[in-house]
Amino acid sequence: MSKNNPEKIITADQVAQHNTRESCWIIVHGRVYDVTEFLPDHPGGMRIILKYAGQDATEEYDPIHPPDAIVDNLPPSKHLGRLDEGSVESIKQEQRIPTEEEREMAHRHSTKPALSECISLHDLETVARHVMPSKAWMYYSSGADDEITLRANHSAYHRIWFRPRVMRDVSRVHFSTSLLGQKSSMPLYVTATALGKLGHPMGELNLTRSAAKHGVIQMIPTLASCSFDEIRSAALENQTQWLQLYVNRNRDITEKIVRRAESSGVKGLFVTVDAPQLGRREKDMRMKFDDVGTDEQKESGEKIDRSQGAARAISSFIDPSLNWNDMGWLKSITNMPIVLKGVQCWQDAVLAAQHGCAGVVLSNHGGRQLDFAPSGVEILPEVMSALRDHGVSTDKFQVFVDGGVRRASDIIKAVALGAKAVGIGRPFIYAYSAYGEEGVDRAMEILRDEFEMCLRLLGARSLDEVTPEMVNCSNLGSADIPKDYLFTGNYERLSGLNDKMSKL
Amino acid sequence: MSKNNPEKIITADQVAQHNTRESCWIIVHGRVYDVTEFLPDHPGGMRIILKYAGQDATEEYDPIHPPDAIVDNLPPSKHLGRLDEGSVESIKQEQRIPTEEEREMAHRHSTKPALSECISLHDLETVARHVMPSKAWMYYSSGADDEITLRANHSAYHRIWFRPRVMRDVSRVHFSTSLLGQKSSMPLYVTATALGKLGHPMGELNLTRSAAKHGVIQMIPTLASCSFDEIRSAALENQTQWLQLYVNRNRDITEKIVRRAESSGVKGLFVTVDAPQLGRREKDMRMKFDDVGTDEQKESGEKIDRSQGAARAISSFIDPSLNWNDMGWLKSITNMPIVLKGVQCWQDAVLAAQHGCAGVVLSNHGGRQLDFAPSGVEILPEVMSALRDHGVSTDKFQVFVDGGVRRASDIIKAVALGAKAVGIGRPFIYAYSAYGEEGVDRAMEILRDEFEMCLRLLGARSLDEVTPEMVNCSNLGSADIPKDYLFTGNYERLSGLNDKMSKL
Amino acid sequence: MSKNNPEKIITADQVAQHNTRESCWIIVHGRVYDVTEFLPDHPGGMRIILKYAGQDATEEYDPIHPPDAIVDNLPPSKHLGRLDEGSVESIKQEQRIPTEEEREMAHRHSTKPALSECISLHDLETVARHVMPSKAWMYYSSGADDEITLRANHSAYHRIWFRPRVMRDVSRVHFSTSLLGQKSSMPLYVTATALGKLGHPMGELNLTRSAAKHGVIQMIPTLASCSFDEIRSAALENQTQWLQLYVNRNRDITEKIVRRAESSGVKGLFVTVDAPQLGRREKDMRMKFDDVGTDEQKESGEKIDRSQGAARAISSFIDPSLNWNDMGWLKSITNMPIVLKGVQCWQDAVLAAQHGCAGVVLSNHGGRQLDFAPSGVEILPEVMSALRDHGVSTDKFQVFVDGGVRRASDIIKAVALGAKAVGIGRPFIYAYSAYGEEGVDRAMEILRDEFEMCLRLLGARSLDEVTPEMVNCSNLGSADIPKDYLFTGNYERLSGLNDKMSKL
Amino acid sequence: MSKNNPEKIITADQVAQHNTRESCWIIVHGRVYDVTEFLPDHPGGMRIILKYAGQDATEEYDPIHPPDAIVDNLPPSKHLGRLDEGSVESIKQEQRIPTEEEREMAHRHSTKPALSECISLHDLETVARHVMPSKAWMYYSSGADDEITLRANHSAYHRIWFRPRVMRDVSRVHFSTSLLGQKSSMPLYVTATALGKLGHPMGELNLTRSAAKHGVIQMIPTLASCSFDEIRSAALENQTQWLQLYVNRNRDITEKIVRRAESSGVKGLFVTVDAPQLGRREKDMRMKFDDVGTDEQKESGEKIDRSQGAARAISSFIDPSLNWNDMGWLKSITNMPIVLKGVQCWQDAVLAAQHGCAGVVLSNHGGRQLDFAPSGVEILPEVMSALRDHGVSTDKFQVFVDGGVRRASDIIKAVALGAKAVGIGRPFIYAYSAYGEEGVDRAMEILRDEFEMCLRLLGARSLDEVTPEMVNCSNLGSADIPKDYLFTGNYERLSGLNDKMSKL
């Protein structure tokens, strides 16, 4: 909104008159915007906006958009002014009747199992899957293309086996560590994920508060549903947070974000490098179609491919030209340690070290970008080996991995192979989508208990004692390819005469 | 039909009297033929012809046969003359009532999803599978024997994984290329497939027109439903087309076809070398039996194995004696670059280069010929290596692959391993079977968008930057064998006492 | 029966009075036997005999027993005499009413598909499975223990892939060969299997007659339902037959059998060496229990383990002491080439050659003996290699394999790896169980057509051109283990909270 | 209970008054205990005790607890005295009505198959699974975490194949052996498992008695439902038994147990080293929740995590500090051979030999401790090789394995790879849970018959002839990972347009 002019006051009735494709005003967070010209450019399609034409769209807008999206995307001339709150009464009186899905969800929430029945992260995910709105579940759980990498991220851990030691005094086991110079109670951190309010109205704040209690570091996402300030404010004084960064085409915006983060006490900068363009996520795309209905679409003769639009629109904000030459500039604007998030081969890990990064996250964006990209843990051994071969100290240059983790034993496997810590994203989101902040607490407790048990049974008293010899990863590179459901779904099975004979 | 004699005019009534096994006339494209003696030789069995005895068989004939089949297969004496169109009225008046299947298909077509809902080639295939007549679906989708190779063609791509690079300026990515000296907007071409009208009345013309719009090369099939001239005429002036060739036992016929193609502007000759005899395709064979009904068959005491007949009949036109010694003759009749389509081992690729071919297509005929033949992409690395070892320039001698491709990422994997381009057949057929020409357009757009995204996420700005180091094919040769449905369908599972106990 | 004494004549009424456990007479093939004392020793349990106490048991006896079993197993004193055929009337008048299963089977036979609809050996098996009595199907199809080897026999072929050659003149392809000096139209033979009449009243004669027509060699089983003489007599004059031999504890019996075979014109002796004791075949064992009913059993307090009895009983006839030292004796009693059937490692193949055998069959008895024995084709490469290393000429010393074959392409793979021919057992039994002799004819035709097509598509004009280079068996030794149904059937799947949530 | 004071006599009425959370008395085996203060510390949660507040809890207590648990866990002051048996009448009169599950179980027991129908250990397990109470089945069958190791224990055997020899005189085969100097009729022993009465009221005594009959050694568990003295007393005079030992934090208790065992004639001491803390067994944990009901739980606001409590409680008795330095002490208190049970890598096997142990059991506690620990048989080859490399005589130092065994052929595979014998646990428990002592007899007979058959078919006349060359374990280390049901249960399959099309 415009900074210096006194804002115009607009009544709800005035807004209500602009409820057509030809003139479309909407209210978001008490401000009125003219989105008529923006309609065809909306990444989510124009139909969803027209649903709120002349009305307050805040509830729909909130979980989907970064807080300032509308302000940033509309020219100042379309920021029409402030809503006359007093005028709203008449509109609000049309008490919104909960939808079928909302009532169903409410019922499910009220009958879900007690939190203590959740005894693994899988359980929290199961509950979330059943109590979340489909749209949120599909958005969070989706992966790229055939979701091969999405699933391989997890199954890779199943190809790493332990070689436990016995007859060691494991009365006491410790698993705290130091990440980028900050203390962490466990070798894990809460990694950045977008649109946190889709699953729960408190969004990312659930993570901030639980992380504080459990001594775990949180990475703040650029595309959070809560604003950066909200998330920082929710943190305790000594709580460590990092910032995940999408570099903007407009470097000034990025510089402003980075400087503000550093001055507010953020302790690390994780630059996402695996998303010069957003990946193709079928489940998410499919949801959009269901939203608008195919019949209307066909009648309207509309041929716009909204899915493409979405990818292109977001690409317009993320800078696909980011490259190694930009490292100098990045280092010039901050003293925070810089970590590249999304490295997928040893060559780039070595380059990151040589360009002065503090570390890398071996990650494929949770399987949401390039399908058939390898999982972080799968390339971890060759990355560690290449860093050593290139004289990089892996004490100072820290290697993280993320993707597919569901148990502390997964993390211990990664630690054995050289990772400093592992990022966990979806499981924590599912935890709060099902049970709010307490769900995240429960997830943290489960992990802590699993760490204690697993280290004891492995015969390791601290993370230092979790050595490469304690795992057998000889099958890590072997073929174990998740099923291709789309291809096999179209394959017509040979049945010979079996069908015929069964009917005799 | 006879060239110089004025054609006799025959009335529909006259034709209608020859409606028995003893004397069987049929009308095709306005000409009348006596097929009585041909009945036992008909590859598809005599029953299907007798169904149209004394009537117009054009509608049934059209999608199944190359346009001139009847003319070529019957001696001139059986070309009885031209139908008196005026006499047809009485026959046509018996308004044909649509069959159950036709009405079902019409219903499905009218309720199928909007084209924009198809967001992958798999979707187009899914729609096609449901809106096509069974016979067409079974013909197109069938593979040889146990369809192991059919499915392995696709799954081989899933054993090739990416090694993506990050921090590269991928603002702009290009994927145009040059194939046999002709421009192509993408590293793919429309490969030849038979009987295009089974899926859509416009048949191969759907491909011609869409290929033109998208700057993609089309390979014209010998066994097209549309005639060569129709397909050439539908092409734009600068549109590149190639010709797929089955060499005829009668070399004069082949020479005529090749010379006509070259003079009409065709830019490449792809000689099919993997089909000295047609493969055994169970789904297709099964359809024929259902067509005629088993009861009648048993009553008639007929023991002819029509399936064998089909293979033998078509073999009689394709020359199984074609061998390396014929290369001299082939090169003598054309200046078009000659590419052998259906090479399945490195030795034959090297021989092709040594015999002056312009390239090879590593192909197993879409899994329709010899089951357990390897997929093209699976042998690609050893072929490239052998060519280099034998001093063959792989710039000049171009290697193509086909079979099993469903995504641009599949193609990029093949390109990384050395392929110049990839042939796509069934997916485009399914596209137009479901949505006509627009379906093919959609398939092309999907592929184009996938190319752009995939290259960007891979960190490659052009096909030159897609190098062997960008893929991990260490599992390409590992065992990953599609399920043997016929064997397992007959296997009686051990159940121990489980069945018994379940009933307690 | 006693040779020299005139037989006593006994009436049906007399027999009918001995219908109890205390005195049990039965009629088999017109002779009367007192089996009272034999009851507890009967391998199949006493109950099944008591069912026919005082009656004619021929129909039940016939398919299960070698023709002379009863004569050989009972002491002469129990051979009571000949039945007075005239006295039978009264018994026969109780017209036997067909059982439920018999009527069901008759219905299935009358509605089964036309033979020409069977387009692969799998189809013939499918029909057989549905039209055979359960007991026969279970007996033929069963394997040892978990049936791992049974299934691995087939799946091993799926780990061998072709490397086809193109551009060879394959106008004419030949696949006749010479086995132990005898002509064979295809590189296969009908191998020996027991109890042929379970599937069809003509039993093994179906095989003899069809083999004659197709120029294929038949191996006559020791445990055939038809007698040796019947099978020899059914052969054409120039038809080649071999004899399969279980060596008897009583070597005189064996010598008599062998000499009779040689003098009657049998051309090869296949000594089974993988069955010193019969394997454990669960499906077959399970059938026996169902036969007698568990309630009666419990009431009777009977604790005899009939399954154990069966194995022990048959072991008492087969000599488990047979060893290499017996080779001298074996060679002394015959000039027929001797082949050891059931060799399962290269060491024994080399020993066989060194002991003067004419060849070996790499076989695990169709997966019916030791589970987890390797398939013949899986050890074929190492056997061929070891023979060469030990200076054995593999022209003279012929290597056969059997087990798991369903297509000519399987056979060609074995030939490529060095096998002279492949034995086929169950598929031919299934063929005649479904369609009698014509079924076997059909199977032979299918194989012949597959040979022709496969050789042509492989680029081989004769078996000589089917070389090791034409197959890729690099995955032959890789793990591909059939599912363990009994173990997994007992495993209780983890479901987490999924079951609970699904019910909300 | 207090040793020297005369016990107070308490009436049932008195007990009945203490039936609340505030004052809770219970009767166990005729003694009265005040458990009020113990309630929050009860590993199984307080709710289950409160169910019996003021009543006799013996029936519930018995199968779950080691006999002296209550005496050991409560301070003497809470041992209130002896129950006045005469006073019980009134309570007992409320004739307990069998629960729904009990009646269902009784019905199942009465209709289960005859024992002779069980022809493999799998069958006994199947029957047990259906006739046992859920709680018992879940306790016995459960494994750690995702039960990957649980299942891998069995599937590892399926990656070991035989290389059978033929033409050996196998008239007689022997498979008796000597374990730690004691005779054993087969190369197997009954290994220790906890809570034997859950499956059958006679508990471990079923094993003792059957083991005696079959010449098999039994290992007595520390956590048996029957007391040590009961189990020793049930043994025959010459029957060999071993003792499984959890070392207590209080070494005096351990010393007392060990000395008592040795003086009573126990012949071997198996120290469990893989359980410094109990593993996480989901099925078992899940049972506890169902027991108490989630609604009550929520109302009560109770947040205690009973599952954690259980692990911690039992950890408080087992000493997690046990280490190699304790070996001197252990050897000082006994002359029995000491074997470490739960070794999981070659390094610890070598250390055990160097510390004077008599052997090791390669074991992962039946897959109940650390998930992704390797199976015993999988590491057997490297253990044997390392022992030889370190100069350890594997005649004197004996290596055992356990876990996953279901057939004698499994055991023979382990013997071929160097194991002296194999421990069998669950299968014998299932056997008696289904059929009592006779079930164990049946299991022993089945194994004995399988040994005889398997050795004969393998061509080995004794265990000495079962050599490493007789097995092919080249795939033993290959990836064959049991399915991850929790992860895949949450995965939302991609279905493309298939669902939509199926509804057209």
UniProtKB/TrEMBL annotation, chains A, B, C, D:
<keyword id="KW-0496">Mitochondrion</keyword>
<dbReference type="InterPro" id="IPR001199">
    <property type="entry name" value="Cyt_B5-like_heme/steroid-bd"/>
</dbReference>
<dbReference type="InterPro" id="IPR008259">
    <property type="entry name" value="FMN_hydac_DH_AS"/>
</dbReference>
<keyword id="KW-0349">Heme</keyword>
<keyword id="KW-0408">Iron</keyword>
<dbReference type="InterPro" id="IPR037458">
    <property type="entry name" value="L-MDH/L-LDH_FMN-bd"/>
</dbReference>
<dbReference type="InterPro" id="IPR037396">
    <property type="entry name" value="FMN_HAD"/>
</dbReference>
<dbReference type="InterPro" id="IPR000262">
    <property type="entry name" value="FMN-dep_DH"/>
</dbReference>
<feature type="region of interest" description="Disordered">
    <location>
        <begin position="76"/>
        <end position="112"/>
    </location>
</feature>
<comment type="similarity">
    <text>In the C-terminal section; belongs to the FMN-dependent alpha-hydroxy acid dehydrogenase family.</text>
</comment>
<dbReference type="InterPro" id="IPR036400">
    <property type="entry name" value="Cyt_B5-like_heme/steroid_sf"/>
</dbReference>
<feature type="domain" description="FMN hydroxy acid dehydrogenase">
    <location>
        <begin position="113"/>
        <end position="476"/>
    </location>
</feature>
<protein>
    <recommendedName>
        <fullName>L-lactate dehydrogenase (cytochrome)</fullName>
        <ecNumber>1.1.2.3</ecNumber>
    </recommendedName>
</protein>
<dbReference type="InterPro" id="IPR018506">
    <property type="entry name" value="Cyt_B5_heme-BS"/>
</dbReference>
<keyword id="KW-0479">Metal-binding</keyword>
<dbReference type="InterPro" id="IPR013785">
    <property type="entry name" value="Aldolase_TIM"/>
</dbReference>
<dbReference type="Pfam" id="PF01070">
    <property type="entry name" value="FMN_dh"/>
</dbReference>
<dbReference type="GO" id="GO:0006089">
    <property type="term" value="P:lactate metabolic process"/>
</dbReference>
<dbReference type="GO" id="GO:0005758">
    <property type="term" value="C:mitochondrial intermembrane space"/>
</dbReference>
<dbReference type="GO" id="GO:0004460">
    <property type="term" value="F:L-lactate dehydrogenase (cytochrome) activity"/>
</dbReference>
<dbReference type="GO" id="GO:0020037">
    <property type="term" value="F:heme binding"/>
</dbReference>
<keyword id="KW-0560">Oxidoreductase</keyword>
<feature type="compositionally biased region" description="Basic and acidic residues">
    <location>
        <begin position="81"/>
        <end position="107"/>
    </location>
</feature>
<comment type="similarity">
    <text>In the N-terminal section; belongs to the cytochrome b5 family.</text>
</comment>
<keyword id="KW-0288">FMN</keyword>
<keyword id="KW-0285">Flavoprotein</keyword>
<feature type="domain" description="Cytochrome b5 heme-binding">
    <location>
        <begin position="7"/>
        <end position="84"/>
    </location>
</feature>
<dbReference type="Pfam" id="PF00173">
    <property type="entry name" value="Cyt-b5"/>
</dbReference>
<dbReference type="GO" id="GO:0046872">
    <property type="term" value="F:metal ion binding"/>
</dbReference>
<comment type="subunit">
    <text>Homotetramer.</text>
</comment>
